[in-house]
Amino acid sequence: MSANTKKIVRIGLLTAISIVLLYALRPLHVSIFAATPFLKYDAAFVTVFFACLAFGALDGVLLTLLICVLQIFLFPSSSGLYGPLMDFLAGASFALAAGLAFHAIKKDWAALLIGIISSVVVMGFANLLITPAFMGVPTSAVIKLMGFILAFNLIKAGINSVIAFVAFRLLKRILTI
To answer: Is pTM beyond 0.85 here?
Structure first.
């Protein structure tokens, strides 16, 4: 099997797993903070975090894009494109940072930590710039919720990273990574 075919199969399989996680774990999509009921945890990006460690940053970003595009059609939201756009920014910033860090330093835990920090920082700025435009709220309202927004992104990326870390450690011998 050619390298391109293997890559397509890997990304397709991880995309399918992400969609199954979104659908099967839908009842667990819970709001972490009462002040921000619109921010809900989901495990879809566990596969992205795994992919950026196992296959590289660009595969992680590509997987993020595919998941977000499919979310638009399979799980429509009252917020329209806002949710998938923010999910893409969170997942892609994580995948890019963690994937590049892992390639450079070969420490999975450190790469995940770098990815978490990157995602939280990017989402802080993204919420300041994008949320007022999409949601029609003043920037001051977003600033008032920024502590919750940053904490949510830290918790979500942290939980998904722990799951991906365990999966990566368990599967890396099988995958000969």
So the answer is: yes
